[in-house]
Amino acid sequence: MRARAVSLATLASLSVLAVGWQVGAQANASMQALSAPQAAPATIPAPSAGPATPTPAASAPAVSGPATTSAGSTTTVPTAAAPAPAAPAPAAPAPAARPTGTFTGSSVQTRFGPVQVSVTIANGTITEVTALQLTNDGGRSVAISAQAAPILRSEVLSAQSAKVSNVSGATYTTRGYLTSLQAALDTAGF
Amino acid sequence: MSLDTRARPHQARPRIHPNYPRRMRLADSLQILAVVSVALVVAVFLADGGAARISTPADAITALGIVTGLVGTDLLLVMMLLAARLPAIDRAFGHDSAMALHQSLGKPALYLILAHAVLLTIGYALVQPAGFFDEVWIMFSSLPDMPLAFLGLGLLIAVVVTSLVIVRHKFRYEVWHLVHLLSYVAVLVAIPHQLSVGTLFREGSLQRYYWLALYAGVAGSIILFRFIVPIVRSLRARLTVVGVDQEARGVVSIRLSGRQLRSLRAKSGQFFIWRFWTPGLWWQAHPFSLSAAPTGSSLRITVRGLGDASSTLPRVPVGTRVSFEGPYGLFTDFARTSPRIVLIAAGIGVAPIRSLLETATFAPGQATVLLRSSTVDDTYLVDELAALCRARGAELRIIAGKRAPGTSSWLPGDAVQARITLATLVPKLREADVYICGPRKWTDEVVRDARSAGLPTRQIHFERFDW
Q: B238: left (phi > 0), else alpha (psi -120 to 50), else beta?
């Protein structure tokens, strides 16, 4: 290779690498910016959203509640809000009541695909966490999330909250999983 | 006598042929493209956040494993392009240099691909956590398309090992060639796992299209220039053997006749890869140089019965159909940079030298032909060379004599003792292009002599014929 070709090739390669690095850094920054506020809006509508609260009086506004709130993006839909016992407890309402039912968290976008979980709560106890969607971008990420999901589930069940430690090697799955779970718990007023 | 050097401005610097800068610009562009293609795959990885995601040692190992795989695969694709007989590559570097580069990339590419496999296994195993071999099994059994990827790796190892020169000489050329074809299979079976296991080339992503376009480009070039163009040219030219002339014991000139041969744009000094369609020969293809300037209807090659194929060639019947790939090579007047020319041949290497002498541009007195042999009897085409030299005003020197044992010179022992070198044999060597054709080791020795005489690379042209 002649000197001119070497210097031109070096220059071109370095600039291509620099552009790649810059794009990567930006994409990563926006990814982090995206995942941070995603947890936040999930908590804001929570107090007002009372679909899970077994209060007959609140049932009318509650219908419009989940549809307009749309905490994450697509879903804050309680799939099985426990029907309230009709007669008693007219004035002993929501806040104190222990949530019961299955609640679906928002779908959280990660670098490796969307993650979404639903949580089943019986009398204020988390009894089940089901992964509805897990990172599926490539065989490797399927394998990772398939491995991480059971670990996260059992940790959540024993901790009874979304505040559990990261599953190493499955950071993105963990982040998405716990964010979606928190959204579901907020919806439940848990 | 004037001391004013301005009076002779032309001699300050030998005039460089205009072809040369043009050819070098093409060569530069191709080399830059190849280097940038490597940078580009790394950049694609970075742009996808590949480096920013690294937070643990396992991440770092995994990222490195991905990058080695990307770069290794890119090099494999460059190698395949170098072997694809791309006209631009042949024009810029010549077949010989392109294949030398192809060869020198083989081992680095294999090492990168091996590093890719090992690093990713370690990176994944650290996360799992699992032992190295457990992880290999996990990858093999649970990740999509991994069995194929392992197959590709195995094939690649086999191809590179058989390509190492020492091993190659133990096999027949055809066996080696057949194993070599497996590299195409190796590259193909590795594609699915790149698209399904990794996340870089995920569906719908821009980089997936870029990657697939690279593969499509390489595959298209191979199909076009290694198969379609040779077949179309062979069918159009309708070459047949019209005469076989005995030149010496075991050496024949084969005269071929066909139509529309001008459209091949073949030049003196180039070679074709020939296939003679007789029952015993059709399955072998062999490179032979033109030994006479091509015309619109005729070509001639001169062949010595060396290998198993060429030993039966002297008996090839008149009328035999001949197919070919080519013409290839930069051992032509197109590569000239200087007004003078020196043609050096040993053995059957005289063939392209003979055709070059016929058509190369030089004024009378500006050309020297050196014919090297151990005895005067094993020189070929000498009568033709002598006649051409007389007609064109070139000097012919036959340098016969055995080499001194244990020395590494292209000249006979007594010449070495008399301190004869290329520079003393040829007047005004520095103003000449030197063309060398002969056995590999001998060629290297002449090239070394030319270099030590101060000749720049651009003035040294050589073709090795024993591959």
A: left
- Taking an 8 Å cut-off on Cβ atoms, the answer to whether A169 and B32 are in contact is no
Chain centroid to Cα B367, Å, comes to 27
Q: Please list, in sequence order, all residues whose beta carbon lies within 8 angstroms of the beta carbon of residue B306, skipping any fewer than 6 positions away.
A: B348, B466
pLDDT digits (tens, 9 = 90+) for A93-105: 445 567 888 999 9
Contact criterion met (CB below 8 Å) for B84 and B218: yes
When scoring B24, B32, B122, B206 by the number of chain A Cβ atoms within 10 A, the one with the most, hence best to mutate, is B32
Burial of B256 (0-12, 13-18, 19+ CB in 10 A): buried
Task: Extract the tokens encoding B338.
Answer: 């200087």
**And the tokens for B51?**
């480096």
Per-window interface: A 9-48 vs B, CB < 8 A: 9-10, 12-14, 16-17, 19-21, 23-25, 27-28, 31
- C-beta of residue B435 within 8 angstroms of C-beta of residue B464: no
Domains of chain B plus CATH, in order, are: 19-232 (1.20.120), 243-328 (2.40.30.10), 336-464 (3.40.50.80)
All residues of chain A having their beta carbon less than 8 Å from the beta carbon of residue B42 are 17, 20
3-state secondary structure of A78: strand
Q: What pLDDT score does A62 carry?
A: 37
For residue A46, CA distances in Å to A104, A143, A157, A181, A189 come to: 13, 33, 21, 13, 6
The pLDDT tens digits of the residues spanning B253-277 come to 999 999 999 999 999 999 999 999 9
pLDDT digits (tens, 9 = 90+) for A79-123: 444 444 444 444 444 455 678 889 999 888 877 788 999 999 998
Nearest to A122 by CA among A102, A106, A104: A102
- Provide the token pair at B253: 């000139």
The answer to whether residues B393 and B367 touch, using CB atoms and an 8 Å cutoff, is yes
One-letter amino acid for residue B416 of the chain: V
Enumerate residues 6+ apart whose C-beta is below 8 A from A128. A119, A120, A157
Query: B182: distance to nearest CA of chain A, Å?
Result: 27
CA–CA dist B185, B209 (Å, integer): 21
Helices B206-222/B19-47 angle, 10° precision: 140
Q: Structure tokens of B218?
A: 């390489």
